[in-house]
UniProtKB/TrEMBL annotation:
Regions of compositional bias (Basic and acidic residues) in chain numbering: 38-51
Annotated protein name in UniProt: Uncharacterized protein
Source taxon at top rank: Archaea
Region (Disordered): 29-51
């Protein structure tokens, strides 16, 4: 990975609060399902979780 790609991935990771492992797992899920990551999914899951 070149420096520009690394910095882009690091920005995404930090913005979403992921570890490197979490970022890779989210990417793998998107590849498996063919669906891009949707931030609204996290919000909906948090909103529906019992307090």
């Amino acid at each position: 990975v070149d420096d520009e790609q690394y910095e882009r991935l690091k920005e995404i990771k930090n913005k979403r609060g992921y570890t490197w492992k979490g970022l890779m797992l989210e990417g793998a899920e998107a590849l498996d399902t063919g669906e891009p990551y949707r931030a609204s999914r996290d919000t909906n899951e948090r909103d529906s979780s019992p307090s």
